[in-house]
UniProtKB/TrEMBL annotation, chain B:
SUPFAM superfamilies with a match to the protein in the record: Electron transport accessory proteins (SSF50090)
Pfam family, one: NHase_beta_C
Protein's recorded name: nitrile hydratase
Coiled-coil residue windows: none
EC number from the UniProt entry: 4.2.1.84
Length: 243, 236
């Protein structure tokens, strides 16, 4: 049996959601435009070079400037809050957790989270005996539709990609202050192919009886990559944010 | 759509296991141009003008090879010849390459645009969409099952590959059959025929992969789990 790419394409139905806000009413978008921690002197050059690509493609009718602006806005609404909602639901609802672990994409659909760009989503659960940590040693594969379109810069760095597969305990301890007990099995998930991984961190102690909404702020981006634990309740009360 | 054969300067992603560079865990803000190139790229994918990320990954590895060999193409600015392109910059270069290969843009148009002159290019010859034939017969039935012992072949292959070089020759165990997927190594080079392949999650012991290079005492229980396409595996 043979077909064409078009008919079999996993990207066949890839279209922007008409209302991206619907899946994320609290996107926690941070305005970093005033933050000049990282200045690249050649920024003007790249800004111009990107503008040329966009202008040429607009002139050829591939898209309009408004479409590009809307796409940038849509991508800005995708934040780790989406992943935090999935994890908090999994913590309070064992049946949902089972569905999430069995078929990540289907469970996201239940929560109105659009994962059409992800071929296959595997949600892995950290427990007292197994700790998962995610990397992409080949590029920067990341569950962008759930954690955001731009992975943290350290995730994309060659240092993280080189080191975490060789000595995950060292990287987590030295760089993230995440000390793992000796008797836990560490599993480094190298996302080299079609699967994107999302980690369910261990539910923090002292949260018995908490409802889903109260748990959401404990679930950080880094805990869903597996380089840290979920926030413990005291810290979360102080910071109360998704890092 | 013409296939894009592997370049002699193609550079697979290397793995430096001696790297001890500290991480800067403070996030850099994302430049607007990086958001813009990501959005342009995603829009083109959404409109089916770009088939997948694989060709862009391949183009980025070609750029890496050119920088390593200092074999710069005309589109590399002088200031960039003294350093490696950063993440977002490399993305721009790779997206431009693929857009030109697909006939959506020409180098001349980009050059004129960068020079700041009014775009006055002739209508581009837009090629046919990339619509390869999908071969679902060559790899019909998955060869391996959960628990099978396998070894990654120890042989480089020209062009874009999706098996990390650090696993070449390493022995592992099938942890799961992930499903069947179009071979990204074919898609990356716009092959006219793309093989549908079984993809496995393979588990490796840290000590098997790194030997003396990993802190043995604390790594004995630890595992690497990596997705590998069937042609990269041999039975043990």
């Amino acid at each position: 049996m043979q077909g064409t790419y078009r008919n079999n394409s996993p990207f066949r139905n890839l279209t922007a959601m008409s209302d991206p806000q619907a899946q994320n009413p609290f996107p926690l978008t941070q305005d970093t435009s005033a933050d000049h921690a990282h200045i690249n002197d050649d920024k003007a050059y790249w800004t111009q070079r990107t503008r040329v690509i966009q202008t040429l493609l607009e002139e050829k009718g591939f898209f309009t400037a408004a479409e590009v602006r809307r796409e940038i806005e849509r991508e800005d609404t995708i934040t780790p809050m989406l992943g935090a909602r999935l994890v908090a639901r999994a913590w309070v609802d064992a049946q949902f957790k089972a569905r999430l672990l069995a078929d990540g994409k289907a469970a996201c659909q239940e929560m109105d989270i659009d994962t059409v760009e992800i071929n296959r989503l595997e949600v892995v659960e950290n427990t007292p005996s197994v700790h998962h940590v995610v990397v992409c040693t080949l590029c920067s594969c990341y569950p962008r539709a759930i954690l955001g379109y731009h992975p943290p810069s350290w995730y994309k760095s060659t240092a993280y990609r080189h080191r975490v597969v060789v000595d995950p305990r060292g990287v987590l301890g030295e760089e993230f202050g995440t000390m793992l007990p000796d008797d836990i099995e560490v599993r480094v998930m190298d996302s080299t192919a079609d699967t994107r991984y999302l980690v369910i961190p261990v539910r923090p102690a002292g949260t018995d009886g908490w409802d889903e909404a109260a748990l959401i702020p404990l679930v950080t981006r880094d805990s869903m990559i597996g380089v840290s634990f979920a926030e413990i309740p005291d810290n979360a009360t102080k910071c109360n944010k998704i890092s | 759509m013409k296939e894009v054969p592997p370049k002699n300067y193609h550079q697979p992603i290397p793995h430096d296991l001696t790297d001890t560079t500290p991480l800067n865990t403070h996030d850099h803000p994302i430049s607007f141009f990086e958001k813009q190139i990501t959005s342009l790229h995603n829009l083109m994918r959404a409109k089916k003008q770009l088939p997948s990320f694989d060709a862009v990954r391949r183009a980025a590895e070609e750029i890496d090879g050119r920088f390593t060999a200092r074999n710069f193409s005309a589109d590399i600015p002088e200031f960039l010849k003294n350093r490696l392109p950063e993440y977002g910059e490399r993305r721009i270069l790779a997206v431009e390459t693929v857009l030109c290969e697909l006939g959506y843009l020409t180098r001349e148009e980009l050059r004129q645009g960068v020079a700041g002159s009014a775009p006055d290019a002739p209508e581009p010859i837009v090629q046919d969409d990339y619509a390869p034939e999908i071969d679902t017969e060559t790899y019909g039935e998955p060869r391996y099952h959960t628990g099978d012992l396998v070894q990654v072949i120890d042989q480089p292959k020209p062009g874009h590959i999706r098996t990390p070089v650090y696993l070449f020759g390493k022995k592992g165990k099938i942890a799961n059959l992930q499903g069947l997927f179009a071979n990204p190594e074919d898609l990356a080079h716009f092959k006219s025929k793309v093989v549908h392949l079984p993809l496995y999650l393979v588990e490796f012991d840290m000590v098997e992969v790194w030997g003396e290079q990993c802190p043995k005492k604390r790594s004995l229980k630890d595992k690497l789990r990596v997705e590998i396409y069937e042609p990269w595996l041999i039975p043990l």
